[in-house]
Amino acid sequence: xxxxxxxxxxxxxxxxxxxxxxxxxxxxxxxxxxxxxxxxxxxxxxxxxxxxxxxxxxxxxxxxxxxxxxxxxxxxxxxxxxxxxxxxxxxxxxxxxxxxxxxxxxxxxxxxxxxxxxxxxxxxxxxxxxxxxxxxxxxxxxxxxxxxxxxxxxxxxxxxxxxxxxxxxxxxxxxxxxxxxxxxxxxxxxxxxxxxxxxxxxxxxxxxxxxxxx
Length: 214
Ligand SMILES: C[S@@+](CC[C@H](N)C(=O)[O-])C[C@H]1O[C@@H](n2cnc3c(N)ncnc32)[C@H](O)[C@@H]1O
What we know:
Layout: H1 3-9, H2 13-30, E1 37-41, H3 47-56, E2 59-64, H4 67-75, E3 82-85, E4 98-104, H5 113-123, E5 124-133, H6 138-144, H7 160-167, E6 172-180, H8 188-196, E7 206-213
Parallel strand pairs: 1-2, 1-4, 2-3, 4-5
Antiparallel strand pairs: 5-7, 6-7
Bound molecules: S-adenosylmethionine.
């Protein structure tokens, strides 16, 4: 998909609402502090990189294997964000290089999943958060089955149990799993559901797992 087209989706009424809901949950679980360093693995066009840098005052590095999307992200940087080409499965950084790390809708496109989470935890000093597509959600039944459609094509939809098993044995603690975006239409009923349903109800399409590095 074209980078500009992908990024412009976040400016549509539905995309902007989903982006806000996802960002809010990520912030809640990642608990970043102003001035800290953050690595965004699979940053794509840099939507979340920009938000973490501009709104939270973090020093952010975005990493992605797609050079075209990285160039777009670089060209739209707002607060000194830096970008590096690479794969989440082989991070070009030293152990505990970043205070925090995040990966949003990128692990679901990666085959070497265990290697990806190993690497993510290795370069993190304090806390990490991984945003995923939830198989136990309405959106999976609408857009995820049979290989998926649109932007979801080829994506792996995780269950909470699967992600727990994937992280088993890593040097992490205080694992938390929450979801949001219970209905993704972005209309009045979606917004209402988002206000009333608890994040610990694991039926939202955006599944986030977060934990502390030991
Ligand atoms: C759906 S996009 C998400 C982009 C961005 N995080 C967002 O939420 O807008 C998936 C991203 O994962 C990236 N990706 C695919 N394989 C990857 C890998 N091995 N390591 C890191 N990122 C990868 C893709 O290049 C793409 O930018």
